[in-house]
Amino acid sequence: MNKNEIKKFFTSQHSTPLQEIDDELFIRKDIKLYIKRDDLIDQHISGNKFFKLKYNLIEAAENNFRTLLSFGGAYSNHIYSLAYAGKKFGFKTIGIIRGEEHIPLNPTLQFAKQLGMELLYLNRSDYRKKYSDEIINRLHKKFGDFYLIPEGGSNDLAVKGCSEIPSRIGFNYNYLFCACGTGGTLAGIINGINNKSKVIGVAVLKNASFLIDEVKRLSSPVNSIWEILLNYHFGGYAKFTSELIDFIKTFNEKFNIQLEPIYTGKLLYAIYYLARNDFFKPGSKIVAYHSGGLQGLEGLRQRKLL
Ligand SMILES: *Cc1c(COP(=O)(O)O)cnc(C)c1O
After folding, report:
1. pTM exceeding 0.85
2. Are residues 170 and 280 in the same domain?
3. Domain match, 111 and 185 both
4. In this structure, are 60 and 171 located in the same domain?
5. Residue 13 shares a structural domain with residue 27
6. 239 CA → ligand 1 middle, Å
């Protein structure tokens, strides 16, 4: 494991474009929408996962950990990025996966395994208590010493990484939108914003009001103005409708930007909905954060869900 290589990789610029979306809807409403294309930040450590891993990997390296262990669902973008980062920087990686093993492995887990990640499956009731002493001790007995990164990569160091997102946008906007799963990315953006722009998270899961407390816990009280929209989950986490799929397809055809239905599709759908319903004052400039996650598309295609 090479500390300097990790630091060099994560602290180099990795600039990504801010792309204006010339939709006639926005012209009609006299607003502007831009997408921060962090899906392009790295092929395998893409979007917000780059920032969530950044200080965690530096911390693990500085403390001479050789093994990284984390948790996720079978299609997790975080597990995918972690497996790749582990291989790239010479850590052993362990992925604790929710639910039973399905053979053949889906493309996400196949990728992770190919890169050397060891996979262990926890049934749903054990998975729910994954941070309990009982489970963590069991994992230590099995795997020895490891650096633990929570599910979705969300901890204080992840929030610190995500606080670097706003300053990379580098122009004045009124709204910054991001998709919200565990809330770590939103918390980081709230911490990192140093202007009066409003930060809006779009929850991608149902009954997500708990995210408001979670984001309060993860972010430090500053003057930022933020809220979480709870009504664009399309039935729940990883649930979606044909209307959402059509929206993603049309958006891709018009603007040549790929979205996916778990996170960024719901995010952009919400922004379009709000624009159509005059949520934004004329003259508003809106930035949507493209948090990546496109690796998951292959698994959805394979299950004929797209
Ligand atoms: C993980 C992920 C998110 C959610 O980020 P949180 O910090 O958990 O809220 C959003 N978008 C994509 C594409 C992701 O992979």
Report:
1. yes
2. yes
3. no
4. no
5. yes
6. 15
Per the structure, how many domains does the chain have? 2
| Number of residues that this document lists for the chain | 306
215 lines ligand 1 (CB under 6 A): no
Best substitution site from 53, 76, 228, 291 to test ligand 1's pocket, by max atoms within 8 Å of Cβ? Answer: 291
Question: In terms of domains, do 211 and 136 share one?
Answer: no
pLDDT tens-digit series, residues 40-64: 999 999 999 999 999 999 999 999 9
Half-sphere exposure of 34 (CA within 13 A, CB side): 18
Is 158 domain-assigned? Answer: no
Cβ(154) – ligand 1 distance below 6 Å: yes
Q: With 80 as the cut, is the pLDDT of residue 1 above it?
A: no
Residue to mutate (ligand 1; options 263, 266, 297, 300; most atoms within 8 A of CB): 263
Q: How far is the CA of 28 from the centre of ligand 1 (A)?
A: 31
Find out whether the beta carbon of 191 lies less than 6 Å from any atom of ligand 1.
Answer: no
Q: Residues 53, 36: one domain?
A: no
Same domain, 169 and 281: yes
Alpha-carbon gap, residue 119 to 140, rounded angstroms: 15
3-state class of 72 per DSSP?
strand
Q: Whose CA is nearest to atom 3 of ligand 1?
A: 181
Does residue 76 have its Cβ closer than 6 Å to ligand 1? Answer: no
Contacts of 13 (CB under 8 A, 6+ apart): none
**Domain termination residue (choose one: 153, 180, 209):** 153
Q: What is the pLDDT of residues 63-95, one digit of tens each?
A: 999 999 999 999 999 999 999 999 999 999 999
Q: Residue 266, exposed/middle/buried by CB under 10 A (0-12, 13-18, 19+)?
A: buried
Query: What is the span of the domain harbouring residue 72?
Result: 48-153
